[in-house]
Amino acid sequence: MEKIVLGASGVETSRIGLGTWAIGGWTWGGTDEAVSIATICRAVERGITLIDTAPVYGFGRSEEIVGKALHQSGLRGKAQIATKAGLGWVDGKVFRDARPARIRREIEDSLRRLRTEVIDLYQIHWPDPETPIEETAGTLGELRREGKIRAIGVSNHSPEQMEAFRAVTQLDTVQPPYNLFEREIERDVLPYAVAAGITVLSYGALCRGLLSGKVTAERRFEGDDLRRYDPKFKPERRPQYLAAVAGLQSLAQARYGKSVLELALRWVLDRGPTIALWGARRPEQLDPLGGVEGWKLDAAAGAEIDAILQSCIEQPLAPVFMAPPLHRPDGV
Ligand code: NAP
Fold it and tell me: Averaged over 11-17, what is the pLDDT?
């Protein structure tokens, strides 16, 4: 398994991380605890030692399942846990809140749910325009000095916001959306991270399953599954993305004997100091892991990939539909 050190923290992790948003159930049509635990254990046993979670994923459920899986399997010592802070919720409605007092409460809740004494990577989930970044950054710096966290990260932050953060404390990672279909960070966040020695945890590496090759035009999503609202999955746009998947699948097979899923994850890993977060939620979904490692895309394949994307997708859509509201509800 390829490894990477998170920024200047000294924390080493695998370059593929298990994303556990879907394991929390919320906005993914529910979860099955036993299957989720088996998936987390399978990941760590196969060398995916980085587990990314957040309090908001299932309103504590994802963190609880991660904590239970690592505790009862005895695998905690082999894993690095990345979790987040800075989102609150009332009656299932999420809002941004990165005030120091909230982070101080959140860290204790996360340590308890995760059944651990230290969090390997602690990230601010979304920038909170109502709280000065310096205050949030200062609190994370304190938590590291207190030994509660080992590395510091942000998610969904711009270079300007990261610059303000770094004026106060060391910043090791950034977690933006990044996959073959969502490449906005190439304009600013990725070059900034490369120059500043910040590791990039790329989320939605499979574009919420689109790049798995298993989504069809007919497939419907049930319950609260966010893909019911994701503009890329709507009938107006899904055919374009599926045409691109078909083209990428042919290229991956013809040039490398690989699947589109393996190509999509490899592509993220070949873009810089990156980690690919893979939102598997069943153990067998991790079977293709071996096909992601031990090879690289060459420049000619990169150009062919770009040509496929350009010919199939008109005006690529950014995943802005996932952003929580900017302001807190009254009285919070
Ligand atoms: P993702 O990894 O792009 O896609 C996840 C979906 O891909 C799964 O739910 C599954 O869909 C499908 N999938 C995975 N492996 C598969 C396989 N072998 N075969 C077929 N389908 C497969 O999406 P993501 O969960 O949105 O992103 C990954 C992680 O990034 C999250 O879990 C979370 O940790 C992180 N993230 C962070 C933020 C943030 O704001 N910081 C936002 C989004 C995500 P099925 O439902 O069909 O099984």
Answer: 98
Please report which helix (H) or strand (E) contains residue 12, including its range. strand 12-14
Beta-ladder partners of 4: 13
What are residue 56's phi and psi, to 5 degrees?
-70, -20
First CA to last CA distance, the chain? 44
8-state DSSP, 187: T
Mutation probe of ligand 1 site: the residue of 13, 18, 20, 21 with most atoms within 8 A of C-beta: 21
Condensed to tens digits (0 to 9), the pLDDT of residues 188-201 reads 999 999 999 999 99
Domain 3-209+268-291: assigned CATH number: 3.20.20.100
Q: Report helix, strand or coil for 64.
A: helix
Distance CA 272, CA 255 (A): 22
User: How far is ligand 1, taken at its centre, from the CA of residue 19, in Å?
Assistant: 6
Residues pairing with 298 in the sheet: none
Ligand 1 lined by 49 (C-beta under 6 Å):
no
Place of tokens 């990039």: 200
Average pLDDT over the chain reads: 97
Distance in angstroms (rounded) separating the CA atoms of residues 60 and 159: 30
Domain spans in the chain, listed from the N-terminal domain onward: 3-209+268-291
- The ligand 1 atom nearest the CA atom of 125: 41
298 sits in the region (left: phi over 0; alpha: psi -120 to 50; else beta) called: beta
Residue with tokens 């989320």: 203
103 Cα–ligand 1 center, Å: 26
Give CA–CA dist 299/320, Å, rounded.
30
Whether residue 169 contacts residue 140, with contact meaning beta carbons closer than 8 Å, is answered with yes
State both tokens at 76: 């905690």
Q: What is the pTM of this model?
A: 0.98
Residue nearest to atom 29 of ligand 1 (CA): 19
Catalytic residue check, 192: no
Report the alpha-carbon distance of residue 83 to residue 226 in Å, rounded: 21
